[in-house]
Amino acid sequence: MKEIRIGLLGCGTIGAGVVKLLRRNGALLERKLGARLRLVGVAERRSEALRALGLGPELASPNPVALVERGDVDLVVELFGGYEPAGSLILKALQAGKDVVTANKALLAEHGARIFKAAARSGAGIGFEASVGGGIPIIRALRESLAGDRHRSVYGIVNGTCNSILTTMSEQGREFAEALAEAKRIGLAEANPALDIDGHDAAHKLCLLAALAFGVILTPAQVYTEGIGAVTQTDIACARELGYAIKLLAIAKDEDGAIEARVHPTMVPQNHLLASVRGAFNAINVHSEALGSTMYFGLGAGEMPTATAVVADILDLARRRLNACASGSHPLGYPTDLLRKARVKPMGDLVCECYLRFMVDDRPGVLGSIASVLGRHGISIASVIQQGRGKETTVPVIMRTHEAPERNLMRALGAIRRLKMVRTRPVFIRIEDRLQAAVGSGDGSQKS
Ligand code: HSE
Asked: Is the CB of 163 within 6 Å of ligand 1?
């Protein structure tokens, strides 16, 4: 029986899941492939990780370069994470004509152009289904299943740590710090959670989603990125009162060639499917012209969910190799040399509705002064909530605006901050109300 020989770089949580799945489903995968998938070497510094998986010492390959260069390795699974040595090892494998499977969203978002070009040049394949949404098959859906359509927007809850923290805050009334501590306690948040809670992990994933959806090279530096650290219980409660849930959304839209790319806490209508995504789950909502709206939901992280995506990529590339199909030319769904650099819309040009909260002195004329600054900047108010007097000297004033350019809003907020009766920095959270048009609001009738 033919074999595809696999070299594994990194045997942490996901690597262990891959080893277990290859073993557990060995016979099934063999039947699906008509060939055997054989692990021939594992580069992992912690020898106990191999022992814990029952892998013999003959599989230990302390030198990852040597493992990638081995003549009997057909396919390299890169699960080291980070930029180096992962990037050099992937390039080396691709240049040698070996297929690569990786979950490394940070590397692909930052240096994907080079890596995908190397794959196209050598004809080797690169699979990265595990890099966005863990076990959710969103990469393949965008590249293959939805390839016949033109996509307008992608909205993703793509960071399970943030979604879990926001769920805890919303359902248990806890503040951010407490909810983060809880996420660390249950092993969901990393000891250094900055990459997740500051929104960078979601921005990396958004770069890949935008590439697949719109055929553009988008880099993390082009994505406006704001984390969830400033979300408070007060804002969650006010959002609820206004009919919204607060979610960290990664949003990409193609507005006739100008790409909107942003990650930030967003108010989502409570009756939208995205608002009901709880805990560590991920969901991606794609809005396409002919098809309309589709949702992809599931576990976005974790050992076995992510391992299923890695093993599916292994199987796919193994099939192509065995059938001598070219696999390296369109990993992002377009010939790599036809991908264009994203022309990103400046945030100032963004037009959206907003939630505003001001902590103000409770005295006559305050509301009027704020409204007058907003009016001078062309911002129209949709609704106002002034919460009842308590013992506090300041009270929150909550406003929901109609659509307005973000540039105007920023200028208005700067002027409002300078008013004497406004005691703290105004809070603003963008609202995505048009999502409603995207999901479940139509009658399902056919349009052409
Ligand atoms: N840390 C990520 C999350 C999973 O919390 O969703 C890996 O991308």
From this structure: no
